[in-house]
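Many introductory courses stop at the sequence. We go one step further.
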Amino acid sequence: MISLLVELKDRHCVVVGGGKIAYRKVMMLLEEEAKVTVISPKACSEIEELSKVEKIKLIQRKAVEEDFSHAFLTIAATNKVEENRRITQRLKSISLVNDASAYEEGNCQIPASFKKGRLHLSVSTNGASPKLAKRMKEEWQEKYDDNYIAYIDFLYEVRNLLKQKSLPPEVSHAILEEILDNAYKDSGELRHIYYKKLLNL
């Protein structure tokens, strides 16, 4: 497998299952602004509430093949391992499908991830220890504070500015290396001064 970041905004995603695990997957998809359909004969109160306020579409029955025909991503998250396997085996050759009960059954994983502005870090242990992946994510949350939002925006703006200027490649490379110094991460004033200097190059 290779790691990819996939845009889910306005994509049709299906979650099969109505329990707490399914709910967590639904919330993850909603954070990415996906269009979510949940299919399950029974649903927990949290999922039912999301349906009532029309944040998701809830179909209260067992999933059938037609439910997946237009799905960009399907997450099999029922409380029955065999049902999850049946869904993933049916879909893995034609679309993205994740088995919440057995990572190796689907064709994509959903790693533990952490986002801070433009910074997006994710980690997977390939099923060896989800708890370790979660711990690593929590460590990142402590290490990368809100200052990184402004700092990475600065890196982005400098890179875009350099693309607009006809500087020799070695000069652009040196600038991009220089701004990785922690001094620029720690000082908004220094970032501002440096960016103004670049504007005049």
